[in-house]
TrEMBL record:
GO terms for molecular function: kynurenine-oxoglutarate transaminase activity; pyridoxal phosphate binding. It comes from Algoriphagus zhangzhouensis. This is Methionine aminotransferase. Keywords: Aminotransferase, Pyridoxal phosphate, Transferase. Coiled coil: none annotated. CDD domains: AAT_like.
């Protein structure tokens, strides 16, 4: 059969997690929390499953959950959204991103993707017949190089995919990034997919700037989020998409035939759980302590580090210590030091190797401390 995705293999996250498992290594590769969710949330799920909330939910999500999301968006980003016409509950941010891309990209359309980039964007663009235009982020701090983005825009550009807080670098968009993007798409027929799955994981008092909070940008944007990241339940695969009514209409046409609807008891449980804003407002300080613990330990090695601004990832540069390929280093660290990480070259379409590795610090403190002890041998 002629493959529609000839360049796609098994993702690096699966490869490294398997290697970590086989080698008995501490797994700081694939991004998922090493601790459980709040028992209150788990009890709510048990309650709703046992109370018979187990049949199909409405296609767009249960109304009270969409209403709750509208309240949350008003509180967090000062934006009023219509729960019926602008909020859709989906089966994870991956589905939101896939459905949004499928809804807007026609064969031959160009889509700008900033690299390094999360691995699910390009296959979705390709399946829609789009052409990915890769634009590198600044090589020093992973900020957006707006001159480069401007040069990449043509009359064929249909969509820009952005991600803040950024995986893998942790870069968090500043006001000037919002301004640059809004200037760029103003008066142009360009849409935006904004991957904001780490919206509640930012550090050092840095606010997350959601595109839904920007009066101009929100008119062209699909904001994609995930409850998996915020509430330590990545296996639940439940998220949302916020987009203006005319975009939501097209989005739902795709969502309707990708999954139709999303797990019913999880929607009821998360709806109740979101009643208390402190449940997500406490997340930044929770993760900031872990970021600091891990960073301070890693600073004892000769790796070059910049404190991550957001997400639960810390990147480290090693090019001044060794010329070994990042993939090989990740493999050797897993097998010899028994700590697994992700080679950042996996986030580039051409596997550009800047000698950077990524660690996930969403783990129990004890596990992070043990990993740091093992990484001490890097010196
Ligand atoms: N985007 C980014 C940047 C991610 O790191 C992830 C996490 N896997 C996703 C999207 C997908 O989120 P979900 O698990 O909700 O599909
Ligand atoms: N987002 C996770 C990461 O970056 C991986 C999720 C997955 O395995 N698809 O590590």
């Amino acid at each position: 059969m002629r493959s529609k995705l000839p360049q796609v293999g098994t993702t690096i996250f699966t490869v490294m997690s398997k290697m970590a498992h086989d080698e008995g290594a501490i797994n700081l590769s694939q991004g998922y929390p090493g601790f459980g969710a709040d028992p209150v949330l788990l009890d709510l799920v048990a309650h709703y499953t046992k109370s018979g909330y187990n049949q199909y939910a409405p296609m767009s999500g249960i109304p009270q959950f969409r209403q709750r999301m509208a309240e949350k968006i008003l509180r967090c980003y000062g934006a009023e959204v219509n729960p019926d016409e602008e909020v859709t509950i989906v089966s994870g941010a991956t589905e939101a991103i896939f459905s949004a891309i499928t809804a807007v990209v026609h064969p031959g359309d160009e889509v700008v993707v900033l690299e390094p980039a999360y691995d699910s964007y390009e296959p979705a663009i390709q399946l829609a017949g789009g052409i990915t235009i890769h634009v590198p982020l600044d090589s020093k701090d992973f900020s957006v190089d707006w001159e480069r983005v401007k040069h990449a825009i043509t009359y064929k550009t249909k969509l820009i995919v952005i991600n803040t807080p950024h995986n893998p670098s942790g870069y968090v968009w500043a006001e000037q990034d919002m301004k640059q993007l809004s200037d760029l798409v103003r008066d142009r027929n360009i849409y935006v997919v904004s991957d904001e799955v780490y919206e509640h994981i930012t550090f050092d008092q840095r606010p997350h700037l959601s595109l839904v909070g920007h009066p101009e940008l929100r008119k062209k944007t699909f904001v994609c989020g995930s409850f998996g990241k915020t509430f330590h339940v990545t296996g639940w695969k439940i998220g949302y998409c916020i987009a203006p009514p005319e975009l939501t209409k097209e989005f739902r046409k795709v969502h309707q035939f990708v999954t139709f609807s999303t797990v019913t008891p999880l929607q009821f449980a998360l709806c109740d759980y979101l009643e208390k804003p402190e449940r997500y407002e406490s997340i930044p300080s929770f993760y900031e302590k872990k970021r600091d613990l891990f960073l301070q330990g890693l600073q004892k090695t000769d790796l070059i580090l910049e404190p991550t601004q957001g997400s639960f990832f810390q990147t480290a540069r090693y090019g001044h210590l060794s010329k070994i390929e990042d993939k090989e280093l990740a493999e050797r660290m897993t097998k010899e030091l028994k700590v697994a990480c992700i080679p950042v070259s996996a986030f580039y379409h051409d596997h550009q190797d800047d000698k950077i590795i990524r660690f996930c610090f969403a783990k129990e403190d004890q596990e992070l401390e043990e990993a740091l002890k093992r990484l001490d041998r890097l010196n």
